[in-house]
């Protein structure tokens, strides 16, 4: 039976995206995204918990994200969860869990009600397959993709 590995997040960037290029020339952008859960506990006190997510974006979408997203800006991210491992300098095994995004939609940031003022409307939602998959996908989503969300 096939499995499903899909993450959907809406949150705020914790830092500006960092863009680099692989030896193959493919762009890779990484950033952190904070999602915050708020609730009232049994004692009536407001509680809040923030979870930080490591986001990785490849290809043209990485360049667009790097150009238009900045720290504090809200974004919708859709992708798959991956965990990679490596050995540090002391030979200890290290692990990092990331969301490899194939869709990023720019949302309003702090004090911003909509798309970035300098971002073209056609780039408010961008989607691209991750490098492991060889499938066709549009390079840019609709100008107002929030109308397509099921909630």
Describe the structure.
This protein is mainly beta and 151 residues long. It has a single domain (7-148), classed as OB fold (Dihydrolipoamide Acetyltransferase, E2P) (Beta Barrel), CATH 2.40.50.140. 6% of the residues lie in helices and 46% in strands. The protein has 1 helix and 7 strands. It has one helix spanning 60-68, and strands at residues 7-13, 18-21, 27-40, 46-58, 74-87, 93-106, 125-127. Strand 3 and strand 4 form a beta hairpin. The longest helix has 9 residues, at 60-68.
What tags apply to this protein structure?
mainly beta, 5-stranded mixed beta barrel, 1 helix, 7 strands, 6% helix, 46% strand, globular
């Amino acid at each position: 039976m096939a499995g499903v590995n899909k993450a959907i997040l809406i949150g705020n960037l914790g830092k500006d995206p960092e863009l680099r290029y692989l030896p193959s020339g493919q762009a890779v952008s990484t950033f952190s995204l904070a999602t915050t859960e708020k609730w009232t506990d049994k004692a009536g006190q407001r509680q809040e918990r923030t979870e930080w997510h490591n986001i990785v974006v490849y290809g043209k979408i990485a360049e667009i994200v790097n150009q238009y997203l900045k720290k504090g800006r809200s974004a919708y991210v859709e992708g798959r969860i991956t965990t990679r491992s490596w050995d540090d300098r002391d030979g200890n095994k290290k692990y990092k869990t990331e969301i490899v995004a194939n869709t990023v939609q720019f949302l309003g940031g702090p004090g911003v009600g909509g798309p970035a003022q300098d971002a073209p409307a056609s780039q408010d939602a961008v989607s691209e397959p991750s490098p492991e998959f060889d499938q066709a996908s549009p390079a840019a989503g609709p100008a107002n993709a929030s109308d397509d969300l099921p909630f």
